[in-house]
Amino acid sequence: MSEAHGIWQSRAELTLMYFVGHAQLLVYAAEQGSGHKKTFIPEEEAKFSFQQVGTSEKGWLAFQPYYDEILAKTDGSFLK
């Protein structure tokens, strides 16, 4: 793995963790306000989901549109 690949993978993973954390906070808020109980995903289903979307390659693909948007908005100034 190249150093650049490692950096972009780390950025993608941090971005993903941010959005996952945000989603979790929304779940907590909805649970508190509505009285509904959150539903836990069974282990087998979670493992299957990970196999479908949890690899680093798929994480990179999910991050790519976000990166492209930031690149277009900043004209690449963050790369300098």
Name a few traits of the molecule:
80 residues; 0% strand; mainly alpha; 3 helices
How would you describe what is shown here?
With 80 residues, the chain is an all-alpha fold. It has one domain. Helix content is 78%, strand content 0%. It has three helices and no strands. The radius of gyration is 16 Å and the shape is flat. The two termini are 23 Å apart.
Brief overview, please?
This protein is 78% helix and 0% strand.
Proportion in helices: over 70%
Q: What profile does the largest beta sheet have?
A: none
- Which segments are poorly predicted (pLDDT under 50) over 5 or more consecutive residues? none
Structural classification: mainly alpha
Number of domains: 1
* Run of helices and strands: HHH
Q: How much strand? A: under 5%
| Mean of residue pLDDT values | 82
Which shape, going by the Cα principal axes?
flat
Output the radius of gyration.
Answer: 16 Å
Q: How far apart lie the N and C ends? A: 23 Å
Count of DSSP-assigned helices = 3
Q: Compute the number of strand runs.
A: 0
